[in-house]
Write a structure and sequence with these properties.
The chain is an alpha/beta fold. The protein folds into two domains: 5-171, Rossmann fold (3-Layer(aba) Sandwich); 194-321, 3-Layer(aba) Sandwich (Rossmann fold). It is built from 13 helices and twelve strands. The chain has helices spanning 5-14, 16-29, 48-53, 65-75, 88-94, 96-105, 133-138, 151-163, 210-222, 241-245, 265-273, 297-303, 308-326; strands at residues 35-38, 58-60, 82-87, 110-117, 144-146, 168-173, 194-197, 202-206, 228-232, 235-237, 252-260, 282-287. The strands form two sheets. A seven-stranded mixed sheet has the order 2-1-3-4-6-5-10, sandwiched between helices. α3 (48-53) links the parallel β1 (35-38) and β2 (58-60). α2 crosses α8. The longest helix has 19 residues, at 308-326. The chain starts with a helix and ends with a helix. The relative contact order is 0.12. The mean pLDDT is 96.
């Protein structure tokens, strides 16, 4: 599946789940060996066509995430990759013990896929909010965490994850109408961040759908003369620490995530930066330590302070405070 302007637009309209299913189908048609599992969400996972074409490789485990990951672990003992899918809060929190033992401790080749991560499922209430999943999964040793910026990067990530030996958590944010970040082919490597925009004053490092929002915020800040570098940190664990080291000369470092600020991507960056004597102030932007009220995706992002305008305003305020502190 090649990324170009026409396919990027189409994939954006289809959304993250549908494109995930298309990417798996493409791998299967090219002869890549793997199985896909679903917790009674075959069509919601984008696996409908895959199930039709490869019924023997698509297993519906019912609404039983713990059992699904137990079975996935057993099937993966011969090294065959297993993609296990469900909504993010259920596959990470309900099945946390199975992830910890089968994927973390035993390092089995299971690729756990969190559908509807972030706020996209917020209209269904807090039971479906996927805003603590990174914090849970990041605490488990030996687990790689990937959060693609757009549908094109989902295609890249799925192929890379299928080839990657060991357990992975794939975090899918956004839905149909996802903004496009990548319009042409590019190199994607797990653990290596991508600089999308150069800037000297502020470095904004984002993951998932927040990457496009960070680019929009950078444009707004540029109008007032603030030079902003934007980085797509698609791999949350392990972080690209070499990339972070290259950002330490900026006046301000900002992390943006569609996740609670407690234990998430921003926390991982803060943990890496904290021992360094020379580092810029770090502004963590994400969802505060609350249970947000339910609502539409656009409403929730605004309520949680995650629009481009709100992010730009917080960065301006932080820059002003930094300047005053220097004086």
């Amino acid at each position: 599946m090649e990324i170009k302007k026409s396919t990027a637009r189409l994939w954006s309209k289809l959304g993250s789940r549908a494109v995930f299913g298309m990417a798996l189908l493409d791998l299967a048609e090219r002869g890549v060996d793997f199985y896909a599992m679903s917790a009674d969400l075959v069509h919601s996972s984008g696996l409908g066509r895959f199930q039709e074409m490869f019924p023997e490789r698509c297993i519906n485990m019912g609404i039983a995430e713990q059992n699904m990951l137990g079975v996935a672990g057993g099937m993966a003992k011969d090294g065959t990759p297993i993609f296990a899918t469900s909504f993010a809060p259920f596959i990470t929190m309900r099945a946390a013990e199975q992830v910890r033992m089968n994927m973390g401790y035993m390092q089995l080749n299971v690729k756990t896929v969190g559908l509807g991560s972030g706020l996209i499922m917020a209209q269904l209430g807090n039971s479906h909010f996927g805003i603590e999943d990174v914090a849970v999964m990041r605490a488990i040793p030996n687990l790689t965490i990937v959060s693609p910026a757009d549908c094109g990067e989902i295609v890249k990530a799925v192929e890379a994850i299928a080839q990657h030996e060991g357990p992975v958590y794939l975090r899918l944010t956004g839905g149909p109408g996802n903004p496009v970040v990548y319009r042409e082919e590019y190199d994607f490597t797990i653990g290596r961040a991508i600089t999308l925009r150069e800037g000297a004053d502020v470095a904004v490092v984002a993951a998932g759908t927040m990457v496009h929002t960070a680019l929009e915020a950078a444009e707004l800040l540029a109008e007032s003369g603030v030079s902003v570098q934007v980085v797509d940190m698609h791999t949350i664990k392990p972080l690209d620490t070499a990339c972070l080291d290259g950002l330490l000369s900026h006046r301000l470092l900002v992390t943006v995530e569609e996740h609670t600020v407690c234990g998430g991507f921003g926390g991982a960056v803060a943990e890496y930066l904290s021992p360094k004597r020379k580092r810029p102030p770090h502004l963590l932007i994400g969802i505060e330590d609350v249970f947000p009220h339910a609502g539409s995706y656009d409403y929730m992002r605004k309520a949680c302070g995650l629009t481009a305008e709100q992010i730009a305003a917080r960065i301006r305020t932080a820059l002003d405070e930094t300047t005053q502190a220097v004086r």
